[in-house]
Structure formats: structure tokens, C-alpha cells
Design brief:
Elements lengths: L1 H14 L13 H8 L4 H6 L16 E5 L1 H4 L7 H18 L6 E7 H5 L2 H12 L4 E7 L26 E5 L2 E2 L13 E9 L2 H10 L5 E8 L5 E5 L5 E6 L5 E5 L5 E6 L7 E4 L21 E5 L6 H11 L11 E6 L4 H11 L5 E9 L29 E8 L6 H12 L3 E7 L6 H15 L7 E4 L1
Parallel strand pairs: 1-2, 2-3, 3-4, 4-6, 5-6, 6-7, 7-9, 8-10, 9-11, 10-12, 13-14, 14-15, 15-16, 16-17, 17-18
Antiparallel strand pairs: 11-13
Length: 462
């Protein structure tokens, strides 16, 4: 696209007459496209009316947002169909007139476009002709509609299997069959938001057909509680789940899973199976058999090997749906506190909470150089600052695992939690699994923590 723009820039200047005072129109295509990238798709298309010089500039933008929702939200119910048909014609024209390939495309449509085949035509155009990498489809359903057929998405096999498509988001549909996802090894990211699926087995088949997925976001309701949701994927790194209704069983087998974000789930304690070496679940308080309060729980394996772009995508997903209010619930982090990159990840994750973390679990990694045995001077360690000094952030309970009493950074971390008076109820430090010498070192360090002159919660080894 850039090469095309460069080669045609001077040609257009010769072809179109430009007023001597119109300095903007004299700019090369690359700069004009950069200017239009700051506008919405609708605004960018309108610039084609300015002059012949601007007629084709918008057609090379790399992102399209075709959203009829803004108009439909203010349209009377009896006019929704004819208005949506008119808008669909404009959206089709925009897709057909666009040139080059697309990095992303968002299509927010009305049920009419699914029923008359327009949606299928759009999908084929943006994937097979436009080679879109990131596709989002959103179904507009009026609040007064209770017809489940308005949500039903039936698409032919291989609909989303084009090699260029790496990220797919669907919002507001019902699925009764996985056939549209056949041969979807191309997908790296799949988000199913506000999706109704007949039963868990169907979702299992959808995910099995997308064997290369690295990111999965599920906000799904099942029509029947029968069935087993099985996620088996050795490429999966990020999994976020929200299931409002009960279902029989959930099994996750993911050798590379580093982030497990459980927003809400109703599965009996014995019917949740997690086999993921990078995620160590010491407590599963979010799994309840009675009518107890269920808190969201985030499990995060911090690693300095993460790519910046990959981590940023994860963190954006982790704060989604909280509307600037900050996350709530419990947090478990596996971290090497002596690694600056992993420590920075821990800080970024903690900043997602605004006020209270119900329970903070820290599992320290075994990557440290221990101090000499019996050395517990706290003169310098309590003044270390490996932890963000956020006066508003508090933890109801703190649990520390693999706490090495001879490690400076870990002691500094625990002592700073106490000195900042961020722990409200109790701090529990696991030592029972240690060999005798290490257990003595850890318990001696805990005794030193108890001597720190500050408000102290209940502190205990377990």
C-alpha cells in the first residue's frame, strides 16, 4: 500500500488541478492518509467529496469501521429494517470501493443483513479480497426482541478459515453448530462475547477446530447445563472466561497458558480440571458448591520473555468491561521478584485494581541467589522499594508461597506490604513444604517481619 501511494503521489498532482492556496491537498498521499487515519471511516469517506484530489485517498486506509448501530439506536422499531437495508448498501459500497488490504475491520449490522445473505457477502469480501487480519462482527438486536432466531448465526463451512485472518471477534449471536469454524488453524485470537450456545460440547468443537489459538475470550451462555467444555491447546497463552449459568464440567489442558482470567463461572469444585504447568492454583475459592459469594480471580505467570505487543493486548483485555472502575476480586501471580521486567509486570497488573484486592497470592520463583544462612539484617531491606507505593490499594488477605527467608528482594517485598499498611486482615506465609533448613530460615524471616514497628495484621506460617 505504501509503495502504491508513493508511486501515484506525483501522478495525482499532475492529473488534478490544485488551487495554489490549498497547501493540504499538495501534501503527498502518505501524509493525507495519516491525517485521515485520525478520522472515523464515515468522516474519511466524506472527504472524497472535497475535490478530485481527495476522491481516492480514503480508499487506502488500513482500518474500516462500518457501524450502523449509531443510526439504528435512534430509529423507530418499525423503520429498523428499511433503514438498515439503506445503510447496508452504503457499507457494501465502502467495502467494494476500498483498495488494498485491511489490518482490521469492524462490522456492526442488523439481523436483516444476516437473513438476506449480505453478512456472508461482507465476510467473504473482507477476508478473501481484503485479506483482513482482525475481523469483528457485531449483531444489533433491539431490546424488545425476544426471538432467538434473530441471534442465530448459520454460516457455511470454512467461513473464517482464510489464511490472512488471525483474529476474530463475534458479539451478539447464537451458535448451534461449529461448522463455520472448520479448518480455522489460521486464527490466533478468538473472542466470543455475549454468545448463546446450545451446549458446552458445541463450544468444545469450535475451539478444537481453531487449534492455533493463543488468546481465547469467552463470555458465553449455554442453553442447557449438560455437556463438558474441553479446551485442549498447547499454543494457548491467555484464557478469559465468563459463564453465568451452570454446566456439567470444564477441562483445560494448556501447556503454555500464562494468564487465566476467571470472571465468573458455575462449575462444581470437583468438575473443574486444569492442567497448565505455568498456572499454579493453590486455592480455587471462585469454585463453590453452595450459594457463597464468588469473586473474579486472575492467575498471572509473569515472564520477562513476553513481547511488549503481546503483553499490551493481554492487559487491555484484563481491564475490559470494568469501565475505568478497576478490577475486583482475587489475584495470584507467579513472579521472580528479583527480575526487573517481571517486577514491572507485577506493578502493571496491580495497577488494574483501584482500591481493594480480596486476596493476593504471590508464588515466588526459584531463580535467586540466597544470602548466607542465618543473615537477617533488616536495616537496608525494609527501605527497598520493589512494590508500588499506591496509598489507595489494599489487600484483605495476602498469601506468600515459596518465600525464601534468605532472599533480600522477597523480604523487602513482604516488609513493604506491612510498612505501607496495605494488608487489612492477615498475611499467611507457606513454609510447611520446605526442607528443615529452609523452613527454619523462612520462619526466622517471618519473626523479623513481626518485629517491624508498624500496624500489623495477623501474620502466620502455614
Amino acid at each position: 500500500m505504501t509503495r502504491h501511494s508513493s508511486s501515484t503521489s506525483s501522478h495525482r498532482k499532475l492529473q488534478y488541478h490544485i488551487d495554489d492556496h490549498d497547501w493540504i491537498s499538495k501534501l503527498p498521499d502518505e501524509l493525507l492518509q495519516m491525517i485521515l487515519s485520525k478520522l472515523s471511516t464515515e468522516e474519511a469517506v466524506r472527504t472524497s467529496l472535497l475535490s478530485s484530489r481527495w476522491e481516492d485517498v480514503w480508499k487506502w486506509r488500513s482500518h474500516l469501521v462500518l457501524d450502523m448501530n449509531k443510526v439504528l439506536e435512534t430509529t423507530l422499531d418499525e423503520h429498523l429494517h428499511p433503514v438498515s437495508v439503506q445503510l447496508a448498501r452504503s457499507m457494501t459500497k465502502a467495502i467494494n470501493n476500498h483498495r488494498g488490504h485491511l489490518e482490521s475491520c469492524i462490522i456492526h449490522h442488523y439481523v436483516s443483513q444476516y437473513k438476506d445473505g449480505t453478512l456472508q457477502s461482507w465476510i467473504n469480501s473482507v477476508t478473501r479480497r481484503k485479506h483482513t487480519k482482525d475481523l469483528t462482527l457485531m449483531n444489533h438486536i433491539p431490546y424488545i426482541w425476544c426471538d432467538k432466531g434473530a441471534r442465530l448465526l448459520r454460516l457455511p463451512p470454512n467461513t473464517f478459515s482464510h489464511h490472512s485472518l488471525s483474529s476474530l471477534s463475534l458479539c451478539g449471536y447464537s451458535l448451534i453448530s461449529p461448522q463455520a469454524f472448520s479448518n480455522c488453524k489460521n486464527l490466533k485470537t478468538l473472542k466470543l462475547i455475549n454468545i448463546v450456545i446450545s451446549q458446552a460440547n458445541v463450544l468444545s468443537r469450535v475451539l478444537a477446530a481453531c487449534s492455533s489459538l493463543e488468546v481465547i475470550v469467552l463470555k458465553v451462555d449455554f442453553l442447557t447445563p449438560r455437556g463438558v467444555l474441553k479446551i485442549e491447546n498447547n499454543n494457548l497463552k491467555f484464557l478469559q472466561v465468563t459463564f453465568r449459568y451452570k454446566f456439567d464440567r470444564m477441562e483445560v489442558y494448556a501447556a503454555c497458558l500464562d494468564v487465566l482470567d476467571i470472571r465468573f463461572i458455575k462449575v462444581k469444585r470437583d468438575n473443574f480440571i486444569l492442567v497448565a504447568p505455568n498456572i499454579q492454583v493453590n486455592k480455587n475459592a471462585w469454585l463453590v458448591d453452595n450459594h457463597s459469594i464468588v469473586f473474579p480471580h486472575l492467575y498471572y505467570n509473569a515472564s520477562s520473555s513476553y513481547l511488549a505487543q503481546e503483553k499490551n493486548i493481554w492487559h487491555e483485555l484484563l481491564v475490559s468491561d470494568f469501565h475505568d472502575m478497576g478490577r475486583s476480586g482475587c489475584l495470584s501471580v507467579i513472579v521472580d521478584i528479583s527480575d526487573p521486567k517481571e517486577l514491572e509486570i507485577l506493578k502493571e497488573v496491580l495497577h488494574m485494581w483501584t482500591t481493594l484486592v480480596m486476596e493476593l497470592e504471590i508464588l515466588f520463583k526459584n531463580k535467586k541467589s540466597p544470602r548466607e544462612e542465618g543473615e537477617f539484617s533488616t536495616n537496608d531491606r525494609t527501605h527497598e522499594k520493589p512494590f508500588p507505593a499506591d496509598a489507595d490499594l489494599h489487600f484483605y488477605n495476602v498469601l506468600l508461597y515459596n518465600f525464601d527467608g534468605s532472599n533480600e528482594e522477597e523480604f523487602a517485598f513482604a516488609s513493604r506490604l506491612l510498612m505501607q499498611e496495605t494488608v487489612i486482615y492477615k498475611m499467611m506465609i507457606e513454609t510447611s513444604s520446605f526442607p528443615p533448613t529452609k523452613k527454619l530460615n523462612a520462619e526466622a524471616a517471618v519473626a523479623k517481619l513481626m518485629e517491624i514497628p508498624c500496624y500489623k495484621p495477623f501474620i502466620k506460617c502455614f
